[in-house]
Design a protein that fits this description.
By secondary structure, the protein is an alpha+beta fold. About 30% of the residues lie in helices and about 25% in strands. It has an eight-stranded mixed beta sheet. It starts with a strand and ends in a 7-residue tail after the last helix. The protein binds adenosine-5'-diphosphate (ADP) and magnesium ion (MG).
């Protein structure tokens, strides 16, 4: 007897909205999942014309019996579930029995398949709008599904497809997201005759991700391996500064199903907290496992999302798991308490009594003497430094604190400069000017830098090489998934480290190429400025501080970085006075006047 059954009306009504074939990548996703469900350990995917012209997927799974071939293209025909209870514990990728039927409704399909038990294999030929034809065929055990002429009879939907290039990249992304999780299975992807992914079955997780994301990104990865309360979190996260300008490298899988989920993203992002700059997102690939009953996979038409029943708990475990991997201390209330910094007040002549009870005074301690305080990162510049002229006023440089903020004093109070934001503004305006005048200062590298990237990124970077050349990067293909860089903008060369260059190129690869040329160039300049600017954690000496302030005073928009974040803030002396309950000079005069103090009658 065949394995595939057509689901009853009752059961169909419990299945959420049917499969949707939006574009070639949704076909590839469904076919990959069918092959995985059939227990394949090696699949070969080949696409032409971005998958619009042709998609072929071959596997060495169980194959489909002749009897099952008769029904497999019908709607709601599946071998994977049969009763209502099955819907609550789905262990296969597919369960609705709709993918093949939906594909057959919009494209021509040809399936060649062979099972272990049958002597003769089967060929199904299905053309849109015609009854499928079944005949004998032969091939080794497994299945090959060929899909062509997508939306041939639906010009309106065909028109909605993106370019072959973009559709091809979407497919690459679908394959990568499955391949990164299913390391037990080999994946080969060929596009228009060129092999772009080729990974063998049963690879280690690190070998797989290194292959897929490129060894340079992989160098920044640390392993996540954590479990608590029946939730397992496994995979990799990148140590900063490796990051992206968007969420495209946040890969999640739940029970090995690639999904996207805003809240899982937030859980990881909150673990990074301030480790990443604003606008930068983590690079991670995490597989989250839990009891089947704790997840509902029957919620999204293309299975891109699942519902995790206790999302709060799962999110907080993910945050802890990622913090643990990054070596970030868990924020505890203690770090906010004054414990340890203060001692109990001692009033002359009065013996201190032992602390008992919980009155609020128990918390009041006194500051230790100054020699006990270590402020290594403080660049104290002292009184003898000449005041600087900035924004039309005179300022005394106090120094740098927290290796991030520069403090200046003037007669109205305090100026606090964010060294990264300020430096980014300076570089942005200067580089923008150089680009406009076509006079970008470049630095030739002693020997070309070879970077290994993911197949998608190599392609994007090479597509952009002309425009990148305008801002000083000379980039060429180095074969395979590698590019070589021989020059960089001079601004960038001052900070050029391998990891900074990778992160910059990685961010560039993810900004939309479709944007208007000028705004795209502006984005590139902003990114380059951001990656060339002083970072938090860099100690600046007095000359560097002075230069930065002088450069900043020459910029047109001094008060924000090129992403709109404030670069300078002012704290008025009055605010300080108010904060400590001190009456200002003006207020004292008003007080004296009102009470006629010191005024002769
Ligand atoms: P579903 O995956 O939800 O069951 P599909 O329409 O994708 O529905 O596939 C219908 C049935 O065809 C599957 O249940 C399975 O029995 C069979 N099938 C499809 N693709 C393959 C394959 N590559 N190898 C073996 N069986 C397959
Ligand atoms: Mg399926």
């Amino acid at each position: 007897m065949g394995k595939i059954k057509v689901l009853s009306e009752d059961l169909v009504s419990l299945i959420s909205a049917g499969e949707v074939i939006e574009n070639p990548s949704s076909i590839v996703k469904e076919l990959i999942e069918n092959s995985l469900d059939a227990g394949t350990d090696m699949m070969d995917i080949s696409i032409e014309g971005g998958g619009i012209d042709r998609i072929v997927i071959s596997d060495n799974g169980t194959g489909i019996s002749r009897e099952d071939c008769e029904v497999c293209l019908q709607r709601h025909s599946t071998s994977k579930i049969s009763t209502k209870d099955d819907i609550n514990e789905i262990t296969t990728y597919g369960f609705r029995g709709e993918a093949l039927a939906s594909i057959a409704a919009v494209a021509d399909i040809r399936i060649t398949t062979q099972t272990e038990d049958e002597d003769v294999g089967t060929l199904i030929v299905s053309r849109v709008g015609e009854i499928p034809k079944i005949s004998d065929s032969s091939r080794p055990i497994g299945t090959t599904v060929e899909v062509g002429e997508l939306f041939k009879k639906m010009p309106a939907r065909r028109k909605h497809l993106a370019s072959q290039k973009v559709e091809g990249q979407r497919i690459l992304e679908v394959v990568m997201r499955h391949a990164v999780i299913r390391t037990d299975v080999g994946f080969r992807l060929t596009r228009d005759g060129n092999v772009i992914i080729d990974c063998p079955p049963s690879q280690s997780a690190i070998d797989r991700i290194t292959y897929l994301w490129g060894s340079d990104i992989a160098k920044g990865l640390v392993e996540v391996y954590y479990s608590d309360e029946g939730i397992w979190v496994e995979g990799f996260v990148a140590m900063p500064p490796v990051s992206r300008g968007n969420r495209s490298r946040e890969y999640f899988a739940v029970l090995k199903r690639p999904i996207t989920d805003e809240r899982l993203s937030q859980a990881v992002e909150s673990a990074y907290s301030t480790l990443l700059m604003k606008g930068q997102y983590p690079v991670c690939s995490l597989d989250i496992a839990m009891k089947l009953a704790d997840v509902d996979v029957n919620v999204h038409p293309t299975k891109r999302e699942v519902r995790i029943l206790d999302i709060e708990k799962v999110s907080s475990i993910i945050t802890i798991a990622v913090r643990d991997a990054l070596g970030v201390e868990k924020p505890s209330n203690e770090s906010h308490s004054l414990e340890g910094y203060f001692e109990r007040p001692v009033v002359k002549g009065v013996e201190p009594k032992p602390l008992t009870g919980t009155t609020q005074f128990d918390q009041v301690r006194i500051l230790p003497s100054i020699e006990h305080m270590t402020l290594e990162s403080f660049t104290g510049i002292g009184e003898d430094v000449e005041p600087v002229n900035l924004l039309g006023g005179l300022f005394r440089i106090i120094g740098q604190i927290h290796r991030l903020y520069i403090l200046l004093e003037d007669e109205d109070g305090l100026l606090v400069i964010d060294q990264h934001a300020a430096h980014e503004r300076v570089i942005y305006e200067e580089l923008r000017k150089e680009v406009n005048e076509d006079k970008v200062a470049v630095q030739e590298l002693l020997q070309p830098f070879v970077l290994s990237l993911s197949p998608t990124d190599v392609e994007r970077i090479l597509d952009l090489s002309d425009i990148l050349n305008n801002i000083g990067f000379s980039i060429e293909s180095f074969g395979g998934n590698e590019v070589s860089i021989s020059t960089v903008p001079e601004f960038f060369s001052k900070v050029a480290s391998e990891i900074e260059l990778i992160t910059l190129l990685d961010s560039i690869a993810t900004i939309g190429i479709s944007e208007a040329k000028d705004s795209f160039m502006d984005e590139l300049v902003k990114l380059t400025a951001c990656h060339s600017a002083y970072r938090e954690g860099e100690t600046l000496n007095v000359d560097e501080i002075r230069n930065l302030i002088e450069d900043l005073s020459r910029t047109q928009v001094k008060y924000t970085c090129c992403h709109g974040r404030p670069s300078i803030i002012r704290i008025k002396k009055e605010s300080l006075d108010k904060a400590v309950g001190r009456l200002g000079h003006e207020a004292i005069l008003r007080f004296k006047k009102r009470h006629r103090i010191g005024i002769k009658e």
